[in-house]
Write a structure and sequence with these properties.
This protein is mainly α. It folds into 2 domains: 31 residues, no CATH class; 96 residues, Orthogonal Bundle (Protocatechuate 4,5-dioxygenase, Chain A), CATH 1.10.700.10. It is 67% helix and 0% strand. The protein contains 11 helices and no strands. The longest helix is centred in the first third of the chain and has 12 residues. The protein is globular, with a radius of gyration of 18 Å. The two termini are 27 Å apart. The N terminus is likely disordered.
Length: 140
């Protein structure tokens, strides 16, 4: 989890380098959430190529190029082997562990007609129907 400090007016000048200290301190003192991989700065750097590739799927021509030759398309973006293996396996949890951001991964999942409920089901180990029921029950 990332906590952002919003600094207004001249507070940034007053805090100076301390704002970086507080951002680091706050983000590292929160308890971990079991079963999650926080998308923090480290994950963002790790997943840059993967997320950039997934963002490219906004363009239909790029989606078609990926489907025509997945391996070449992954090489074009310089994916690491764990990222490429996760793409090949269509495994969302592996993609997240490899630095994938859920919003960009949704672009990838859309190629295969999967939606965020499909992704949520995979993340929780449930079927899509079980995941939908869990969402409905949580809203009651």
């Amino acid at each position: 989890m990332i906590i952002h400090l919003f600094i207004f007016g001249n507070a940034g000048e007053i805090l100076g380098a301390d704002r970086h200290h507080w951002r680091h301190t706050l983000s590292n003192t929160l308890p971990p959430i079991p079963g999650t991989t926080p998308f923090d700065g480290e994950q963002a750097q790790k997943g840059y190529a993967l997320n950039k590739m997934c963002f490219s799927f906004n363009d239909e021509a790029n989606r078609q190029a990926f489907l025509a030759d997945e391996e070449a398309y992954m090489r074009r973006f310089g994916l690491t082997e764990p990222q490429a293996a996760a793409i090949r396996a269509r495994n969302v949890l592996q993609l997240i562990a490899a630095g994938g951001n859920a919003y960009y991964l949704a672009k990838f999942a859309g190629i295969f007609k999967l939606d965020m409920q499909d992704i949520g089901a995979q993340q929780t180990g449930l079927t899509k129907e079980q995941f939908k029921a869990k969402l409905v029950a949580a809203g009651q």
